[in-house]
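Record 1 of the preview.
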Amino acid sequence: MRIGFLAMSGIRAHDPELLRLGLTLPGFVHRSKQIASLPSLGLLNLAAVTPAGHELRYFEAESDRSEPADVYDCDLVAISTFTAQVLEAYHIADRLREQGVLVAMGGLHVSVLPEEAAQHADYVIVGEGEHTWPHVVQHAEKLVQNRKANYSNVLENIGIESIPCIVRSADFPAVDAGALPAPRYDLLDGRTYNRFTVQTTRGCPWRCDFCASTIMLQRPYRKRPVGDVVRDIRAILDRRPDAFIEFADDNTFVDKKWGRELCEALEPLNVKWFTETDISVADDPGLLDAMRRAGCRQVLIGLESPTETALGGIELHGDFKRRRFDRYRDAIRAIQSRRITVNGCFVLGLDGHTTRVFDDVYRFAMETGLYDVQITVMTAFPGTPLYDRLLKEGRLIEPTNWKLCTLFDVNYRPIGMTIEELRAGMRRLTTMLYSEDATKARRREFFSQAS
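->
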């Protein structure tokens, strides 16, 4: 079979004022552009476990959200997507199926709402896909072979269940993070990527109620063998010696001892890299030193709020961030003193926030010298505890309007401010944080900290 892997890239937003600001404030879209330019590691992982004997191709949706023409040459196309872009993915899937192409869909959104996705796909993969995907490929291959042979009563002849088919990872052996093959980075040859993703861990132990990434990763936090991580990076460097590496993790350095082992193995590779972790990384000066030597250039840390009270209750396990709030400033300074920049992330509109939060975020960012700042609106993704809670409380404005699940659009009723105050505050803070003067001032503070 000819099998295509179609990535739905790009950041979504619908607030027209934010979109306008994005055109004039480069800092606002800088990180978004980096994310949008990353290849889909999930699809490359599926390609790696595809049974032998098939022709594989990697595609990306066009900038206008349409699909490339060549994807119609495939017999089976896998599409991975998230909530904000799922309607676009459904439209593409519908067009492909109209032309006789089999479609498989996976990812966060369809794992929560597989019956919805089954209206647009032949196969819906629920949860992690490494063990379910080979089953889908074998199923589709039989169907394609019989179609091409013009057999009648195809499904009866080959003795398989009808499609659409929902395939659940829970019905297969659990995915062993220590036994994954290298992603098929070779499928990216000829493309202009300069940033590549590698996974070192899966999951996060803190389980924030708004976090969608834990939907698929129901198993405990898992670390991959350091040797496998190095193997994957070498596979990239063989093709792009100057590649920048992004670790596609939710929280890399939960285990500090393992983290030091990882950094020691990375140091000889002379790569530059970025990752996401939590504030506790600053508890271990030896780890920070090892990260610097190993080529770490930035860590993204979910600070969530510039005030302690709003952090209470956002995690399902132990109020980790609230308990560490009084160490935020010292931790940022400790990390940035190693010339590792911090991208501090804040979620606006938490239940403990009032309209003061916008000035509080700005003041915190400027005083701490955060090299980069990421601000988002609290967003209730389907399947999260936050979504269930807000739905029960009657606070979701349009519960199934997935186009508004962008992290930048308001789709719920805040407690400490009005909807319009949250929208206006987000716009104003965007203008303040990402202005040229504010960005330069934060960078000056960073360099004053860096040793």
